[in-house]
Specification:
mainly alpha, 4 helices
Length: 106
């Protein structure tokens, strides 16, 4: 019969006794990560932009855990916004190029 595995002290899931509490990102940090990832910054560089409570930067494992949604959705959300605005601009320009069908307009 096998013994059940005991969680190791200091593992990423549970802080060890007396250890640091989990990093909880602010909305500003989430927006910054989303923006940097959407613009193609590497994850190790994004980590250097987010500080932790010790005055250092966060690790890549913390980035992946705390900002999982932003890492997945950042590029898609920015592309959606840019393409939506680009489509509106094209629509506005094409409406200017079409001859007016209203009576009394030159």
């Amino acid at each position: 019969m096998r013994k059940a595995k005991q969680p190791r002290k200091g593992s990423a899931k549970e802080p060890s006794e007396g250890g640091m509490t989990r990093f909880i990102p602010t909305e500003d940090e989430r927006a910054l990560v989303k923006l940097l990832i959407a613009n193609g910054y590497a994850q190790h560089l994004v980590c250097k932009c987010i500080g932790n409570r010790r005055g250092s930067h966060i690790s890549e494992s913390t980035l992946k855990r705390a900002f999982a949604h932003e890492l997945k959705a950042g590029k898609v959300e920015l592309d959606t916004i840019v393409l939506g605005r680009w489509t509106l601009e094209i629509t506005d320009w094409t409406s200017l190029l079409r001859p007016s069908t209203q009576p009394g307009t030159p």
